Amino acid sequence: KKNDQIPHSLKFGFLVSEYPIRNITYGGIGTSVHDLAQMMAAEGHEVTVFIYGMELSTVFWQYGIRFHFI
Predict the structure, then answer these.
(1) Which of 4, 16, 54, 57 ranks highest by number of CB atoms within 10 Å?
(2) Terminus-to-terminus CA distance in the chain, angstroms?
(3) Predicted structure pTM score
(4) How far apart are CA 7 and CA 60, in angstroms?
């Protein structure tokens, strides 16, 4: 029995107030989450980023990452 193995695909979610996307640049936490989310998605994990404080609520996929503007 292999109980110590990590599943091949994990689900990750991030909640941030800023994220560098669609020609909008940010620093700090937004850039860190951007880099981490892209790395995790490239490894085959399911990544969702919730960006709050947006004027428009929408959901879309980009670079294998699901985004929720809330």
Answers:
(1) 16
(2) 43
(3) 0.81
(4) 26
